Amino acid sequence: ASPIKGRGSQVTQEGPGNKRCISVVQEVNRMKEERERRRARQAEKLLEKDALRRQDPGNPNWEVALMLRQYQATLNFSPLRCLDPHGAFVQPITVCVRKRPMSRRESNCKSMDIITVPTVDSLIVHELRFKVDLTKFLEHHKFRFDYTFDEECSNALVYDHTARPLIQTMFEGGNATCFAYGQTGSGKTHTMGGEFCGKVQDCGTGIYAMAARDVFEEVSRPKYRELGAKITCSYFEIYGSKVFDLLHPDKPMLRVLEDGRQQVVVVGLKEMPVTRVDDVLRLIELGNKERTSGQTAANAKSSRSHAVFQMALHFPDSWGPYGKCSFVDLAGNERGADTQSADRQTRLEGAEINKSLLALKECIRALSRQSSHLPFRGSKLTQVLRDSFVGGKKNKTCMIAMISPSTSCVEHTLNTLRYADRVKELVAKDDDLQ
Ligand code: ADP
Ligand code: MG
């Protein structure tokens, strides 16, 4: 008789069929043991998880926090804490990143800090991802820049490594330009204009003011006094493709023209003579007030405009300024995505912001390649800043990309870092980050 096939079959006969049945029984037993082992392992894991959860009570993200801690434990930390005694390295184009601290709101809503700044020039974004079986894992995006500032770095330390080395450029007949780039709320205005205490901004603690102090220290040297050197300040805003003077009580719209010598002129822009740091601070305060007047959080126009603060060095009887320092608080880069908005005006503004940030990136890249083709006519922003890009080796540019630390901003943070990375492509050194 042929052996009976199938599960749970009775075994009464000897022969090849009988052997097969025995092996089926063995297989069933093996599977049973395996299942029991798996269950025991799962129970063990659950106990372990429970113990770990109790280490981080009340944190809904305890699992991700644990993965992050375990990863960070493998890194060597030596973040930037002070200026090198030899000063910062001066180069034609510097690209840095600054991470701001978690805000109270972010901490209260249990958002997580997912940015690690292990060394003076590296940064890691830990992005939460899900496998197909929905288990969580962290993807570690590594970046390298000229300098990376973590949440403990002060405005002064950032200034020392970014704008300060550029000030001398103006006295050497060049143009120094410092950009603050990033998402709205990432710390551009805090860094450039000064720290906020509630809604009040202390404009003495920003890069504008620190630069003004250094400019006056230099210009008060006998050499420049004898030459009759003078400093002027201007402060304007580019909103859409329009330029508005922030130092004029009526905030008039100004025209931008190019003359026969391809010089770009902002017609009627106030260039206020200043003789000491306090004069500059007063002008910054005045401009800041103009910039934000009549705004609410909902219509925050300032996040859709680029603010340009300039100091220029003049000598008597010469045409135009000898050198210039420009500081640009750029529009929030996420506003470039407003091109999908239902509101036509918002869409147009978004498109203009997008265009200007792309043109800016291309101009800086062209400057670094010493390329003869400078696409500065690509936007109002780059057109107005033409002098920063032409003039070759005398010019120096610095970009500070600002990022928010929290989980909710990870997409914008990665966009910001990828943009900054394209402005100046530094190769990430893997051994630094492990
Ligand atoms: P942005 O100009 O990029 O929109 P802000 O400069 O207005 O951003 O910063 C948003 C908020 O974060 C402000 O309340 C500011 O005080 C705070 N902030 C930004 N950077 C820092 C920092 N480095 N340290 C402390 N608070 C910061
Ligand atoms: Mg701002």
From TrEMBL:
Annotated keywords: ATP-binding, Chromosome partition, Coiled coil, Cytoplasm, Cytoskeleton, Microtubule, Motor protein, Nucleotide-binding
Any one GO BP annotation for this protein: chromosome segregation
A Gene Ontology cellular-component term: spindle pole
Keyword Transcription regulation assigned: no
Protein's recorded name: Kinesin motor domain-containing protein
Subcellular location(s) per record: Cytoplasm, Cytoskeleton, Spindle pole
Domain Kinesin motor: start-end pairs: 92-426
Residues of the full protein shown: 149 to 582 of 740
Residues where ATP binds: 182-189
Family membership: Belongs to the TRAFAC class myosin-kinesin ATPase superfamily. Kinesin family. KIN-13 subfamily.
Gene Ontology molecular function terms on file: ATP binding; microtubule binding; microtubule motor activity
